[in-house]
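User: I'm writing a short methods note and want a consistent example. For TetR/AcrR family transcriptional regulator, I'll paste the sequence; you return only the structure tokens, no commentary, since I'll be parsing the reply automatically.
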Amino acid sequence: MSQSIDAEPKPRARSATKRTTKGARWNNAVSGADEQYELKRQAVIAEASKAFGRHGSQNVSLDEIAKALNVTKPALYYYFKSKQELIYECHELAMKIGDQVLKDAIASESTGYGRVTAFIRNYISHLTDQMGAPAILRDFSAMTPADRKKITVRRRKFDLQLRNIIEEGIRDGSIAPCDARLAVFWFMGAISSISQWYHADGSLTGDQVAEVFIRFLADGIRQRATNPVLI
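Assistant:
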């Protein structure tokens, strides 16, 4: 369903203070101007993440994003100076989601394998939720060099955390010995491709896709008994 705004906002100075938001809405049912501004800004990021993730940022115009939100293109420039800035903010949102999902997985599970599978299950859930922010991570070249560098640093840190979890699983016996770096490249590459073929009205739900991926992972890296019983 398209979201709408009653009127285009008048120009205002942007605050340098980072605002805290509860979610993205595109209406006036909020308590103050700052909250209203940030909620609408988050609505733009959410819509852009969905469009960029499914079609690629180079194939989506700001006009199309504005139309989906039922606003004019000039209204978007009130929230973002350029398309490149919007693309960067989509990457930032994707990284925040990934960081939180990984943090939750570490807190909820005690073994390396349990943490990896919890991460995959919840990350795919976010990815398949209307093709949200994580899908943008495969579209890396459209940012400015400075923004690309910032996201690259964050992605390397994120990948290192995943590798550490794989290595912990090898040490605790829940994951078979393997190259942790290649394991992360493999399953994150597979996950990032979901946005290219998944459709919410298809034969599988997002949760079902996650379980299939986890079964593939289990057959690939989970430790097996060294002396299986032959029947």
